[in-house]
Amino acid sequence: MAHCPFDFFTDRKKHTICLVGGGGKTTVMYELAAAWAACGRKVLVLTSTHILCPADGSFAADVPAVKNLWQQGSYAVIGTPELATSKLTAPPQDLYEALKLQADVILCEADGSRHHPCKVPAEYEPVLLPDSDIVLAVAGMDALGRPLAQACQRSQLAAELLGCSLDSVIDAQMLASLLLSEQGARQNVGARAYYIVLNKCDLLKAAQQEEILRLLVGAGMDEHRIWLRERGE
Length: 233
Hints:
The chain is an alpha/beta fold.
């Protein structure tokens, strides 16, 4: 069960949340979906890019299947199956339109990172839902101490943004800069509420956690919008 510290998790309001970045977006998305569903909320999960089709029976091909899952106390995943890859792409627009007003919470994986713990988006990324009110940026703390070229998707863009080489080792300041830049994880966020999940924080010593938190808050990020998430939460 997710132990999400964010205000929107318990405010009982309707939210449409897009997840961007790297380092465990899908895991965080499904944990939040399961936690909200366990509280009796009708949760709709989808992607605007690609995600693996879930093997737990939560995929729903149409409106009746979604409603059936909600009645069972489960979240529902919608999308367009790609037979060649076993992945889902964005759902048909008419299906999404038919369900979005009925859902209490909508979660959308709006970015891909090819398993890199962090990333810088291309010009056409992320693909945020127009009606989303929250963007949740995820970064894996296993990026720290690794070369940019190895740990960051679109590392050339990251090097240009940070003014460093591809061989540069990622430190807390670099990661904070990627998370706060409007050419980084905040790209296209606009007026939406912005939150950060620092994933795999159990890999860090307490002093390292305090350092990256200090850097983010010092640059203007609200501390209450930062989740120091450990694996297994």
